[in-house]
């Protein structure tokens, strides 16, 4: 009988991309494995997961916030509901093993797995451990981490340094082909600006303010996030709300990438060796990720709190006008983690038994 593996993540794409990367590795190692993905009811992951033809089910989910919010009174009931929905899914699908890479939707899934004695692998992407993974770590038989700094945060007897899991599409690049697919000018430098799977309103506004200056020297691919489009048009400006399979092509086509500091995106840029400007979300775990890349001169890091359009345009123009700096950034970012994380995690999953 073929092995059954259940993945869970969602709400944002950050917890989903490494799961897809591990799925790709597992499919290549043991094609007969059956998969099921459990995600949120309203997140962006459903469309992406189904585009890979992975069966998808949603459950109710909520967050445990460390600050006051009226949702703190209702979300525990959503989590309880998600727990019982997870139990039913487990009894129907009968998975041999579960993998979760952060995300609050995974919390009731991990708890249900523990009740039914299904082994769980938790993957820690970011340097700082998020609350969701803290709530799940006690259920895990194995915990994999992206950075050696995270080894101290978990039980050493079950924690393994693997690096992050990176989708195969980011490991190969033909820049001319990618630019042709996206309708870009081969003779112009290309800047990709993305706020992650759900977008970034502040970054979008700063970008809008900076575009008149930036577009004097280059062309821009701007991924704004779903329902966060900006009112701006220009010949060299290419705006998208969301990418499903096109992001590897956009990264490949680019000479410089501007991004938040979600570890999923940073890992993909690391594997691609892309010169990167990081603008972490203010006062969040992303600042730890950004500081780590800055420490090793693997990226230009800007503070969101003091950023404006003029400053943003100046940083972009300066980077593009110094190719030797871009090359140094490219070399340094490639050193941040190995590209073999997906294979290592896949093999750990295959070794896990009930």
Commentary on this structure:
With 354 residues, the protein is α/β, with parallel strands linked by helices. The protein folds into two domains: 4-166 and 339-351, Rossmann fold (3-Layer(aba) Sandwich), CATH 3.40.50.2000; 169-334, Glycogen Phosphorylase B (Rossmann fold). 39% of the residues lie in helices and 15% in strands. The chain is globular and about 60 Å long. The mean pLDDT is 93.
Provide a compact summary of the structure.
By secondary structure, the chain is α/β, with parallel strands linked by helices. It has 13 helices and 13 strands. The longest helix is centred in the N-terminal third of the chain and has 19 residues, at 75-93.
Structural topology:
Layout: E1 4-8, H1 17-29, E2 34-39, H2 45-51, E3 56-58, H3 75-93, E4 97-100, H4 106-115, E5 120-124, H5 131-136, E6 142-145, E7 159-161, H6 175-181, E8 190-194, H7 201-214, E9 219-223, E10 237-240, H8 247-253, E11 256-259, H9 263-272, E12 276-278, H10 286-295, E13 300-301, H11 309-320, H12 323-334, H13 341-351
Parallel strand pairs: 1-2, 1-4, 2-3, 4-5, 5-6, 6-7, 8-9, 8-11, 9-10, 11-12, 12-13
Helix pairs in contact: 1-13, 3-4, 6-8, 7-11
- Give the number of DSSP strands: 13
Q: What's the name of the CATH homologous superfamily of the largest domain? A: Glycogen Phosphorylase B
Question: How many helical elements?
Answer: 13
Radius of gyration: 20 Å
Specify the CATH architecture of the largest domain. 3-Layer(aba) Sandwich
Shape estimate:
globular
User: How much strand content do the residues show?
Assistant: 5-15%
Show unreliable segments. none
Distance from N terminus to C terminus (CA atoms, Å) equals 14 Å
User: What is the fold-level CATH name, i.e. the topology of the largest domain?
Assistant: Rossmann fold
Please bin the fraction of helical residues: 25-40%
What would you call the structural class? alpha/beta
């Amino acid at each position: 009988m073929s092995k059954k593996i259940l993945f869970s993540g969602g709400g944002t794409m950050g917890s989903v991309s490494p799961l897809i990367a591990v799925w790709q590795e597992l499919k290549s190692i043991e094609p007969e494995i059956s998969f099921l993905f459990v995600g949120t009811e309203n997140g962006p992951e459903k469309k992406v997961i189904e585009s890979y033809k992975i069966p998808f089910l949603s459950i109710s989910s909520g967050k445990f916030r460390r600050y006051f919010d009226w949702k703190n009174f209702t979300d525990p009931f959503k989590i309880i509901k998600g727990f019982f929905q997870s139990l039913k899914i487990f009894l129907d699908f009968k998975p041999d093993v579960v993998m979760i890479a952060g995300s609050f939707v995974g919390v009731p899934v991990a708890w249900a797995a523990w009740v039914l004695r299904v082994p769980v692998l938790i993957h820690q992407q970011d340097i700082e451990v998020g609350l969701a993974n803290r709530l799940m770590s006690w259920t895990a038989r194995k915990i994999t981490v992206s950075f050696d700094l995270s080894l101290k945060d978990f039980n050493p007897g079950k924690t393994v340094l693997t690096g992050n899991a990176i989708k195969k599409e980011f490991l190969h690049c033909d820049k001319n082909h990618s630019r042709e697919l996206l309708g870009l000018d081969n003779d112009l430098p290309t800047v990709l600006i993305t706020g992650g799977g759900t977008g970034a309103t502040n970054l979008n506004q700063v970008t809008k303010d900076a575009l008149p200056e930036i577009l004097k020297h280059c062309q821009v691919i701007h991924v704004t996030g779903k329902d966060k489009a900006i009112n701006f048009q220009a010949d060299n400006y290419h705006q998208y709300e969301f990418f499903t399979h096109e992001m590897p092509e956009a990264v490949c086509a680019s000479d410089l990438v501007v991004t938040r500091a979600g570890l999923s995106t940073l890992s993909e840029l690391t594997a691609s060796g892309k010169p990167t400007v990081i603008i972490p979300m203010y006062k969040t775990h992303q600042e730890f990720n950004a500081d780590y890349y800055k420490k090793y001169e693997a990226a230009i890091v800007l503070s969101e709190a003091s950023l404006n359009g003029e400053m943003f345009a100046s940083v972009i123009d300066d980077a593009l006008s110094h190719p030797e700096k871009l090359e140094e950034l490219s070399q340094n970012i490639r050193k941040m983690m190995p590209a073999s994380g997906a294979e290592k995690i896949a093999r750990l999953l295959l070794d896990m038994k009930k």
